[in-house]
Amino acid sequence: NAGVTQTPKFQVLKTGQSMTLQCAQDMNHNSMYWYRQDPGMGLRLIYYSASEGTTDKGEVPNGYNVSRLNKREFSLRLESAAPSQTSVYFCASIRDPGSYGYTFGSGTRLTVV
Amino acid sequence: AQTVTQSQPEMSVQEAETVTLSCTYDTSESDYYLFWYKQPPSRQMILVIRQEAYKQQNATENRFSVNFQKAAKSFSLKISDSQLGDAAMYFCAYRSHTNAGGTSYGKLTFGQGTILTVHP
Which of A22, B1, B38, B114 is least surrounded, with the fewest CB atoms within 10 Å of its CB? Predict the structure, then answer.
C-alpha cells in the first residue's frame, strides 16, 4: 500500500545508546518531516527536508541528526539517547511545500531508560 | 513564529449529540491553511478538515464543520451527530501558505490536542 513506512514501531533504549529511525515513502513526495509527540505538547517539528538534498532544523532539533538518503528515505538519528527523548516519533511527507495533502507514518514509540 | 492553542485538554459528548472543539492561533500572516487532524488509539494521523484563510466560507465535511473567525484568529471544529468512532485525540494545525519564493517549506504547527470521549 502506498504511504509512509516507519521502522521500528517500538524501541527501548538505554541512556547513551544510539539508534536510527527509518522513514520511507513511495508516493514520489519531495518534502519530508520528522515530528515528536509528547503529552500536552502536541506534535513538534524536529527536522525537515523540503526537497531531496536539503535538510533543515525545526523547533526541537537538539540531540538529533537527519539524513535525506534519497527522495524516498529520510532517517532520524539519536547519537546518545537521553530520557528526555522518550516520545512518539512521526514521519510525514507531502508532494511539495506548496501542497497540503500530508501523509503520516504510523509512528515509532521510543522509550529511553 | 506562529503558535496554536487548544485550551480544552479533554472534552466529552453523548452519542448523537454535538460537540465543539476550540482552537486559537497567533500569526502575523494574512494567508495560511488551518487543519484539524484526528488521532485514534492506533496513532494514525487522519485529516478531518482543511480551511484556506482566504476563503470566507467555512469548510464542511459531512458531520464535521468549522467556525473560522479570521479576525479573532479562532478555528473551532463542530462534530454533529457524534459517533463512538469519533472518540480520539484531535489536533488543530497551522501552515503558512507557500507562494513562489515562500519559505514556510510546508511546516505544520500543531496545538496541544484535545481528547474527545464519546459516551454511548
Answer: B1
